[in-house]
Amino acid sequence: MTPTRIVLIDKKNHVRADTAAMALDSREWAEIAAKGQSNRVTFAIRAAKLLDERHGRACRAYGFTPFATADTDGYFVFDCDTPSAPPLIFEGHSDPRATAEVMMACFYVGYVRRHH
């Protein structure tokens, strides 16, 4: 089953995107979410790509791995389709408590790596 809520956390432990919040303010993401994806990996990569595009970051490709390494740049992916997940986290309003709540209540899925 494809998750409807993915949260992306950067390597500095800041929440960078919550797809449930993105769907409220991004027509493009709302369309992606409505169509669904075949798996979590594709869903997470599309979320990372859209986030980077919104911030003017140019990346030539994205990949998915189980874990990050010291020399990679990207996002930790959490599946927050769970009743214990924290409330929506809007971009720019992340604090350490929100990150901790996601890490404790949601399921770690993997890491989206950006290839510059």
Protein model, in words:
The chain has 116 residues and is α+β, with helices and mostly antiparallel strands. Helix content is 35%, strand content 25%. It has 4 helices and 5 strands; from the N terminus they run ββαααββαβ. It has a 5-stranded antiparallel beta sheet with strand order 2-1-4-5-3, with helices on both faces. The termini are far apart.
Task: Fill in the keyword field for this structure.
5-stranded antiparallel beta sheet; globular; 25% strand; alpha+beta; 116 residues; 4 helices; single chain
Which stretches of 5+ consecutive residues score pLDDT under 50? none
Q: How many beta strands in the DSSP annotation?
A: 5
SS strand fraction: 25-35%
Which sequence of strands runs across the widest sheet?
Answer: 2-1-4-5-3
User: How many alpha or pi helices?
Assistant: 4
Computed CA radius of gyration, to the nearest angstrom: 13 Å
Average residue-wise pLDDT: 85
Most strands sheet: 5 strands, antiparallel
Structural class: alpha+beta
Task: Describe how the helices and strands are arranged.
Elements: E1 6-9, E2 15-18, H1 19-25, H2 27-35, H3 40-54, E3 61-65, E4 73-79, H4 96-105, E5 107-115
Helix pairs in contact: 1-2
Can you summarize this structure?
35% of the residues lie in helices and 25% in strands. The protein has four helices and five strands. The protein is globular, with a radius of gyration of 13 Å.
